[in-house]
Specification:
By secondary structure, this protein is α+β, with helices and mostly antiparallel strands. The chain has twelve helices and ten strands. A seven-stranded mixed sheet has the order 1-5-6-10-9-8-7, with helices on both faces. α1 packs parallel to α4. The model has no long low-confidence stretch (mean pLDDT about 90). 3,4-dihydroxyphenylalanine (DAH) binds next to β9 and β10. The site of 3,4-dihydroxyphenylalanine has 11 residues, from β9 and β10.
Length: about 350
């Protein structure tokens, strides 16, 4: 058995540095199985005349161990408290996982902002439409193929009810409710009965534009669209208008931008033509103005329609339209920076 002095020295020298060593100390000197307890059990074997002083020494030893234990425990708790209060407030916090805007929303907002800056107002309308707003008022002939079941989703119970195939229906809704000057853009979802491939989908998004006032000219349209193209794709972009046909505009055109990847020299994106098609446009057909209750002798206007998916694919160089509808976070996460 160790002597009282030896144990005393051990108590003093024992290194208590953390909660673990504090517990070791407690087990070794203060628990029921400790060597100090063994000394207590020994008291009865001591000669009676020495018993009292031996008992005192063992008691002192125990008090010493107890005291050391308490002191260390207290200072450890105190220093933990200090650590809390001097927490490093400059340390960056753990990042909070946040989502990002969908690329289609990002692009819609961008287009919208560009036109709002020059006085256009955004308006919206119903996805489920009737024949008048989607076709008839827009001067589509009765037998026009766009009305065909192959292109348009009709509601079976009611042949006049259909999912809009373009946002041009909002031209009609706007002009029916408002006299010129009119300057609106109409973002929205459209539907076509098409096979889903990397280039085409049965749901996509368009932004329609309409400007009707006195003396609106083709040159006004050209300048407005040039401004748009340069803000969207960069100040060096050039535009080109090619004659085309839409029932609701006369004359009609398709607009290309000079390829912003190769600058017009020819690459994969522009299929080596130097040009990329981005929208359809034209002067609003007088028949459409009249159908909507606007005097075509007094007013003229231009309209345009662009596909958001196409614009997004061009701008972010993605090659499969289906990615926009699959909600794969690995794809969507890549638009975090753009959505700020
Ligand atoms: N509505 C046409 C489409 O879906 C796009 C379009 C072309 C809209 C010419 C217009 C326009 O307003 O003037 O393909």
């Amino acid at each position: 058995m160790k002597s009282i002095d030896e144990l005393k020295a051990e108590i003093e020298k024992f290194k208590i540095e953390n909660a673990e060593t504090l517990e070791q100390f407690r087990l070794q000197f203060l628990s029921k199985k400790s060597e100090i307890q063994a000394l207590f059990a020994e008291i009865k074997n001591i000669a009676p005349e020495e018993r009292k002083s031996f008992g005192q020494l063992v008691n002192e030893l125990k008090d010493k161990a107890q005291q050391r234990f308490e002191e260390c425990k207290e200072s450890m708790e105190a220093s933990q408290g200090v650590q809390h209060s001097i927490a490093d407030v400059t340390r960056p916090s753990d990042s909070i996982p946040v989502g990002s805007m969908h690329p289609i929303s990002i692009m819609m907002n961008q287009v919208r902002r560009i036109f709002e800056d020059i006085g256009f107002t955004a308006v919206t309308g119903p996805d489920i439409e009737d024949d008048w707003h989607v076709f008839t008022a827009l001067n589509f002939p009765e037998e026009h193929p766009a009305r065909d079941m192959q292109d348009t989703f009709f509601v079976e119970l009611h042949p006049d009810v259909l999912l809009r195939t373009h946002t041009s229906s909002l031209q009609v809704r706007t002009m029916e409710n408002q006299q010129p000057p009119i300057r609106v853009i109409c973002p929205g979802r459209v539907f076509r009965n098409e096979a889903i491939t990397s280039r085409a989908h049965c749901i996509f998004h368009q932004v329609e534009g309409l400007y009707v006032a006195e003396n609106v000219s083709f040159a006004d349209m050209k300048q407005t669209l040039l401004y748009f193209a340069q803000r969207m794709f960069g100040p060096d972009v050039r535009i080109r208008l090619r004659p085309s046909y839409f029932p609701f505009t006369e004359p009609s055109a398709e607009m290309d931008i000079s390829c912003y990847i190769c600058g017009g020299e020819g690459c994969n994106l522009c299929k080596h033509t130097g040009w990329v098609e981005i929208l359809g446009c034209g002067m609003v057909d007088p028949n459409v103005l009249e159908n909507c209750g606007i005097d075509s002798k007094k007013y003229s206007g231009f309209a345009f329609g662009l596909g958001i998916e196409r614009m997004t694919m061009l701008k972010y160089r993605t090659n499969d339209i289906r990615l926009y509808f699959e909600n794969d976070v690995r794809f969507l996460q890549q638009f975090k920076a753009a959505s700020r």
